[in-house]
Amino acid sequence: MNRYEEIEVRLKEADSLTESIDVLELLLFGGYAVWEDDSLYSIKQQVDRFKGLKFEIYSKEHPPPHFHVSGGGVSASFTINNCEHMEGEIGGREKALIVWWHRRSKSILVETWNKTRPSDCPVGPIVI
Q: Is-above-0.70 flag for pTM?
């Protein structure tokens, strides 16, 4: 069962308003939104954690396809295609770790990017 199905089950099985509001709190503060077809999606998709850095892909984005890295004093974004540093401050050690991770994780980044594109996203899927 995926997390969206788990949320649906929690709502269906809620025995009180308090339990139902707990789910609403999760939706409002947990980074969720609703597609045009009334299904849930995550505003951002955490891809991985590596050496204390968090990697995320946002659902509605601008070109080129990219991912965000944060944590440990780092806040930067990189292209999915070739891991080019787009913006943000980052030290040499952290950048080397991200490039290392990217070489081994590019396929999961592409897969995650493609499956999280909403219908009105100005950037379409990545075609390899």
A: no
